[in-house]
Protein: YifB family Mg chelatase-like AAA ATPase
Amino acid sequence: MYSIVTTAIVYGLESRCIRVEADVSNGLPVFEMVGFLSSEVKEAKERVRTALHNCGYTLPAKRITINLFPANVKKSGTGFDLPIAVAILAALGEIEKNALEETLIAGEISLSGQVQPVQGVLPIVAMAKEQGIKRCILPYVNLTEAKLIDGVTIWGVKNLLELTAYLKGKTYIEKEPIYIEETEQNSKKEDFSDINGQETVKRACEVAVAGRHNFLMIGPPGSGKTMIAQRIPGILPPMTKEEQLEISKIYSICGMLPQTGTLLQKRPFRSPHHTISINGLAGGGMIPKPGEISLAHKGVLFLDELPEYKKSTLEVMRQPMEDREIVLVRQAGAYRYPADFMLVAAMNPCNCGYYPDRNKCNCREADIRRYLGRISKPLLDRIDICIESPLICYDDLTKRKEKNEPSAQIRERVMAAVSRQQERFRGTGILYNSEIPSKDMETYCHLGEKQKKYMKEMYQKLELSVRGYYKILKVARTIADLDGTEEIEIRHLNEAVCYRILDKKYWE
Structure:
């Protein structure tokens, strides 16, 4: 007696099809499972045996063998419980085998037979659709998430007895998914009109968002660095459907996808604490999961108090900031996660926060160098825009809020600049100026004779690296887009250079 059931496993950002074979034959009574299994999958044997018993099914005193193939893929997670139980019942003749054709089953079961939710349902259903599978049987709690993929019939089941009844021919009763409305607290937006003064910092922030450039603010405590960063989501451009699906898959894998009945609509804004570990930032663990840099994909990763992070943790970002993805190599294989994020960071210039104002700063030169040295030169070189955030004067502080520019007005200019970039890069796979490869710099950041002469002077005077030189051109390209001009002018280059000289002031 033999049966086979289709299920899936999340591997990286995608999902892989797994076949569960069940064979019940004469021999010594034993329940054996093979197929490169992790500990939680091996434990499914006891969960399934007890759940079947509590649902009224008695396993015969025969040899039961379960094989999960392909055997070269490490099986992890608890989503194999339900397909293993169904495969055994089909092998025993309790379920017709033709009822399992073109069907994918996934879910965890408790000892009483209740079907429990699993993570990564969105990429699993997306894979099923690509493979031509017409029906997915999943836990009822995951129904909202599974319904986000069109073109596949979804059955949401609450327990094992309900599932077996449907597979035996009982008409499936369509269930209403569980929707959780977004609360007002989660949906409210911080607005730039709340910030008095700091016009230069707000301008630099606008440029950074328009071209998705990495952005660093340096200044004393209380100068508004964190407030400005928290208002960035209000000026980010909207996501495309493809971006929404890609980001929703990441959050589904981590079990963080809101049950609102829609894909994620807002770009991520992640702000991890400075005590975060390397695995927490980059991803990993025994069962690799995306880290904060992947959760910030197509959005913003905000690191407040940047020097307080461990230096080894910060250095992990260097490669993903260039490649826009991270590959985690483990014994079970290589896991590839996207990491196309905009880095926004804020920091004090020293331990007390008031350097270079020696009237307030009491730090020793060695302490200041040690504090700033926590940010390595290679990491600093990957930051496109570095701006100083000074203390706000009294006149700016008491200025009427109505005179401040709101986020909606800034967002209009950002959207206009993004539209120019989309038109320029149509069909190239490039989305923002920050992504222009070095081989295409002459094409998209062409300079006239005066501009070349100016940049030659800046290159030699500032002792720029090749990366630093190209980043100035990319930022100047974004500034020109905000101005609505196709030609990069001297004033655009001058502003872009000003965003690169601050590292000379503090680090050299």
The longest strand covers residues 14-25. The radius of gyration is 28 Å. The chain has a mean pLDDT of 92. Residues 407-424 form the longest helix (18 residues).
